Amino acid sequence: VGNRFSILPRSAILPTIRPVMTTQRRIVCLVLLAGLALGLRVWAAVGLSDGEAAILVPEQGRIAENLLAGRGFSGEFLGADGPTSQQAPFYPLLLASAYALFGVGSASAVAAVQLLQCVVGTGLALAVVWLAWSLVPTRPILGCIAGLGAAVYPAHVSMVVDLDVAVWAALLLTLLLAVVASPYFRATRRGAILAGAISGILLLVEPVLALALPVCLLVFWLHEDRLWTRAALGRVGLVAGLTVAVILPWFLRGWLVHGEPVFIKSTFGYAFWQGNNPTILDADKVPG
């Protein structure tokens, strides 16, 4: 008398036979990606590093040394030695921690930071998967493909070797985007708290990424069911308020030290000048 599904429309049958990515498969995907990403980055750190990477960040290194010597967040620039805001606080503090544990400017300290950045780079690949799963929840395979690309992309692999904020900033920005796009966190108080905390830390790592924060805040707000309610606006305000709260101590420190407001670091505008000046090649800093 025929198949028992013959009286049903095709659209009613397809969802029951369409392949899906189960939770177990998602876990397997994440584990394999993490292993691949971490292995490639450790290989790069061991094979590409010569143990002298500290010379790539002389200013951050000097600030780290001054911190350990009790001279505070200070350095020398254009012959003047004293408190500085030439750098955002995160990386000099990270180097100071490594120097305290393994020796100032030592190859062991450099290797420790690089291996830590291998873990951070692996986290970046996984954060890309999370972001893709949040943006395209019906196509989880796309998240695995995006994560694979992030895991093996040469620039992502090699940047863990450099003593630079790039890998940390990339991870934090990707996490922020994933939080504001995630169905689990969107339009919730916990999402607002997490987004605000990540935003503030991101600015302390690389303040130029403040350019991305309005977009992230807009995405978070647009996911509200009703945009102009007190609750929705309150959550948006909570994100902004927590961001300010995280950076406020460092902002006040800069104001007290320099006698004028400084947004995280005094070279904040240099990136704009450098990016729009065709005569700039490999210059890293100019007086000003």
Order of helices and strands: HHHEEHHHHHHHHH
Low-confidence runs of at least 5 consecutive residues? 13-19, 51-55, 283-288
- Which bin fits the share of residues in helices? 55-70%
Residues in β-strands, percent = under 5%
Structural class: mainly alpha
Arithmetic mean of pLDDT: 85
- Note the overall shape: globular
* Number of helices, where a helix is a run of at least 4 consecutive DSSP H or I residues: 12
Written account of the structure:
- It is built from 12 helices and 2 strands; from the N terminus they run αααββααααααααα.
- The chain has 288 residues and is mainly alpha-helical.
- A two-stranded antiparallel sheet has the order 1-2.
- Helix 3 crosses helix 4 (90-102) and helix 8 packs antiparallel against helix 9 (189-205).
- 37% of the residues are buried.
Describe the structure in brief.
The protein is 64% helix and 3% strand.
List keywords for this structure.
288 residues, mainly alpha, two-stranded antiparallel ribbon, 12 helices, 2 strands, disordered C terminus
Helix and strand arrangement:
Blueprint: H1 10-17, H2 23-48, H3 58-68, E1 74-77, E2 80-83, H4 90-102, H5 107-135, H6 140-152, H7 154-158, H8 166-181, H9 189-205, H10 213-222, H11 230-258, H12 270-275
Antiparallel strand pairs: 1-2
